[in-house]
Amino acid sequence: MPVNRRVVLAARPVGVPVPSDFRLEEAPVPEPADGECLVQVSYLSVDPYMRGRISGRKSYAAPVEIGQTIVGNAVGRVIASRSDSFEVGGYVHGNLGWQEYAAASDDGLRAVDPSVAPLSAWIGVLGMPGLTAYYGLLRVAGVNSGETVCVSGAAGAVGSAVGQIARIKGCRVVGIAGGERKCAWVTDELGFDAAIDYKGENVTDALRAACPDGIDVYFDNVGGPITDAVFQHLNVWSRVAICGQISQYNAVDASVGPRLLWNFIPKRIRAQGFLVFDFREHDAEALAQMASWIRGGQLKYGETVAEGIENAASAFIGMLGGANMGKQVVKLSDA
Q1: In terms of DSSP bridges, do strands 109-111 and 91-94 run parallel, antiparallel, or are they unpaired?
Q2: Do residues 69 and 99 make contact, with C-beta atoms less than 8 angstroms apart?
Q3: C-alpha span between 329 and 156 (Å, rounded)
Q4: What mean pLDDT comes out for the span 140-145?
Q5: Using CA of residue 129, residue 58, residue 141, residue 320, what is the dihedral sign?
Q6: Does 147 have pLDDT greater than 90?
Q7: Which of 22, 78, 124, 181 could form a disulfide linkage to 313, CB 3.0–4.6 angstroms apart?
Q8: Could you read off the pLDDT of 291-316 as tens digits, one per residue?
Q9: Which residues are CB-contacts of 22 (< 8 A; sequence separation ≥ 6)?
Q10: Are 127 and 46 a contacting pair, CB within 8 Å?
Q11: For residue 152, what are the contacts with CB-CB under 8 A and spacing of at least 6?
Q12: Ramachandran angles phi, psi of 66, nearest 5°
């Protein structure tokens, strides 16, 4: 019988996570109960929100406890089923955690179609990151044709989709990313109108040049000094969709701020945080639209792929430091 290898939380990270905060364990392959499927995982998702889940802080979801399998989305093949909803051989997506085999209730799984897009896309552009981009831009910010949209973390899984959807909707798009290679990718491959390298440019000055008419929508993935710079260029009645604050996730002490909210008063700026689950009832419609854009070549995606569950922790640590371009995934088995 195969062994189930899984990654568990060994210690709560202080500041930047280190490999010793995680532990690779072996356990028997679980047996599915009534209403469950046994899934052999093909790809694990690695996402910034996981940093909060392993910190122990109170949040919108329960933290991962010491010794518990790291939470996370995954996609794979059903190899045993005691469910009326899923048959052996089908492919599913769900919160399966960082493990090679997972027994999961059928009400927590969604069928995926590998003929529409590769399996890995269902935890990326057709999964939580893509839906986050879609809802944050279209429902939270309410973008309109002709507006200028600025997105931070533009070369990440969410930001890269945000910019392309904004272009589809007729907007001018300016991305902020770290490094010349990432900036070239979002402009040359993804069609952003401009990109700002926060590592090599003065962001405030670069925004002034790239957004001469100001910014109508800011999709915030990073927070910190980059967001401070953007606030100074927001237009009257502009909107800010607050998706993430990755620049702050490893901070031991909270930085001073936000310091520039006085901009919001005379300009009547609206800022709103959101979670992808807020719009769950619209997932089928959103995924159908995203899949149509992918088939039509309007929506592209990139991936950074690590191989093997033993490299999941290092992929996560690298992603938090900006090592990935596009969606960071971990490949565990061939489809």
Answers
A1: antiparallel
A2: yes
A3: 12
A4: 98
A5: negative
A6: yes
A7: 22
A8: 999 999 999 999 999 999 999 999 99
A9: 7, 8, 9, 10, 70, 312, 313
A10: no
A11: 159, 175, 176, 218, 219, 220, 221, 222, 226, 227, 230
A12: -60, 130
